[in-house]
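User: Before I run my own analysis I want an independent prediction to cross-check against. Here's the chain; please return only the structure tokens and, at the end, one sentence I can use as a sanity check.
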Amino acid sequence: MSTSAVVSEKTVFKTKRFTIRPLNSTDITKVEMYVRDIRLARSSGTIPHPLTPGFVKDFIEKSMSDETSLDAWKIEFEESGSTDLIGVVSLNRLDRSQSEIAYWVIPAIWNTGVATEAVKAFIEFNPQNCKTIFGSVFQDNPASSRVLTNAGFEYIGEAESLSVARSSMVATWTYIKKLD
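Assistant: Structure tokens:
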């Protein structure tokens, strides 16, 4: 079971294996280091490759603003008193009590269940108090599809979405999780 605590008006999530904390400006260098990896950029619709100057800083500052629809958290392993950033998960508020989830974890821990555990934590705590969460994944990334289905999301259809790193439209699968 997970627990949470409120820090600076944003929720901190604790699960069995890690802690999820709001991103802040001290995370810029570490996040930049990871998202420079073409594998992460290609699995995301928004991360450019090569990484453009200021991209991570702008993303984190936007997520920290009270005047944005985006909330982003870092996923950290906590061992022996130290923490290590292993991924990011975000929710983007839409209208009518809906949000869209996005996430990535470092390639070294792909297929370990960390992303699924993080998504399940958000469903449990519902930090944006939404009634519906959407998720979209590229069809050539079936592992991300499994994260959503393992977290209880239902497939609702196919579409296309821009991949900034690929500079093209890419086929996607879209999923929904109703929280009512």
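Sanity check: The chain has one domain: 3-178.
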